[in-house]
Amino acid sequence: MQSFTLRRQLLLAGLLGCTLLLGACDRNTPPSFHGNDVTGASIGKDFRLTDPDGKERTLADFRGKVVAVFFGYTQCPDVCPTALSRAVEVKRLLGKDDAERLQVVFITVDPERDTPEVLKAYTAAFDPTFLGLYGTPERTAETARSFAAMYRKVPTGSSYSMDHTASSYIYDPQGRLRLQLAHALGAQEYAADIRTLLKSR
């Protein structure tokens, strides 16, 4: 009888130990994302660009929010409108409170044509809180390189288009680059990953 009781106590102790161990693992397990986790990467440490009102902007301006950075240009025929339309849907999926903690930043790779007035009208057509940023051609190239983002001018008749990286770069509320989200992902996946970051510490 004592042997049975002892075995039972040992079994219960083992189960309790496993439960505690699993609980500890849960706390230490990094969050799962739909996008590419780039936490700790050396890219995208910051940017220093100008908004349409002439104010210089850096990541520090958005501390406390998740920041979604996208490179594009206003005459983009498909990728950019799709990305910004998806961002509108992401805000809807997040709900009012969480949506207010998301800042969408659109960095133009075509500062020659994307004047402050054009840039402001373009982003506002999707959402008045979306912020377009621009720099000199040299500053634009420097910023893109810091993100390992690509863009190039492609002649089209008497004008040109721009090939460019279509991924979005996502920062957590502490200003750390955490994710690179592929253009192929949908609004549901974007919203889920952003919601996870909003809960992170």
UniProtKB/TrEMBL annotation:
Pfam families in the record: SCO1-SenC
UniProt entry keywords in alphabetical sequence: Copper, Signal
Residue ranges constituting the Thioredoxin domain according to the UniProt record: 38-201
InterPro entries from the UniProt entry: SCO1/SenC, Thioredoxin-like_sf, Thioredoxin_domain
Key word Signal present: yes
Signal peptide (from-to): 1-24
Family to which this protein belongs: Belongs to the SCO1/2 family.
Stated name of the protein: SCO family protein
